[in-house]
Amino acid sequence: MLVFGHSLIPCKPWYTASSIDDILQPPPSSIILISNLSENSDIAMHCKKNDLPFAVKTESIKDAVIAANLGASYALCEIENTREIQQIANEYLWTMRIITPINDENEIESIALQGIDGVIFKNFIV
User: Fold this and answer.
1) pTM of the full predicted structure?
2) pLDDT digits (tens, 9 = 90+) for 44-72
């Protein structure tokens, strides 16, 4: 299970991008987070073309399928639909990892028991 943002676990920082210009500001080793794929598909295409790791905030199964096909490294899914999206990811053997945001490390165990690929602390996303 992947854990992003825990004080004991080193990882790449996550930065929200709402334009291609936003991609130029974060450190090169960061993960770009695209909040709305339909409005920011140009960012996803730019990341894919330039081999930049990126995550997509997904609100539906459709969003996750499109993100996986665009080459996203991660799908950030709220807990309400994470389990369904994880099952689809497992079925289709996506390389994209399913990540759910959490507030507290005590949530890690329950997310792990559901078989979700990983978690990210909400305050870790810039």
Assistant:
1) 0.93
2) 999 999 899 999 999 999 999 999 999 99
Give the CATH number, domain containing residue 7.
Answer: 3.20.20.70
Provide the number of structural domains found in the chain: 1
Distance (Å, whole) CA 115 – CA 67: 20
Picking from 85, 94, 92, the residue whose alpha carbon sits closest to that of residue 115 is: 85
Half-sphere exposure of 121 (CA within 13 A, CB side): 15
| Side-by-side strand order, sheet with 54-58 | 2-4, 118-121, 97-102, 74-77, 54-58, 31-34, 14-17
Q: Do the Cβ atoms of 23 and 47 come closer than 8 Å?
A: yes
Structural domain that includes position 101:
2-124
